[in-house]
Amino acid sequence: QNMGCTASRVVQPESATEGAGRVPQPQKPGTKGKAVPKLSDEALAKADARYTKTTELRALLTHDAARGGVAVRLLRARWLLEHYQAEGHESERLEHRQALERAHGDEPFVGGEMLERVLRELEEDEHGKCNYKAAGGEYREVKDKYNDPIPIA
Questions:
Q1: What's this model's pTM, rounded to 2 decimal places?
Q2: In terms of C-beta distances under 8 Å and separation of at least 24 residues, what long-range contacts does 122-129 make, across chains too?
């Protein structure tokens, strides 16, 4: 996944022979043997948009009184590296968000102007490519190591 720029549909095999060699998908307890409901194209598009469209991401990543606060918080990579590489922290494990908030406040999380910069950089062009804003201010396609554009869906 590239900062929310990649979305894909999980395709379940129709028969046992089609799924040979595939890693089984985890199931919720009590659902073994039950049919998994399939999403309609509209429901799938809505679910994909939740994590790939800037307006949807902004609603999840910023304070919303109707949701009781911030639904999703992004961790700062720099904080993770500095904190867990510091002497005395090497054996710690990454805790749940609530534990991080209690212990460190907002320090580990992307917020404010940093969050706005991240959201501005994640804009989609009409061809469905993921763009980033270069240092000069222009938008460029995100490309893989073979210099091919990375599609959003």
A1: 0.53
A2: 122/3, 122/4, 122/5, 122/54, 122/57, 123/54, 124/52, 124/53, 124/54, 124/152, 128/152, 128/153
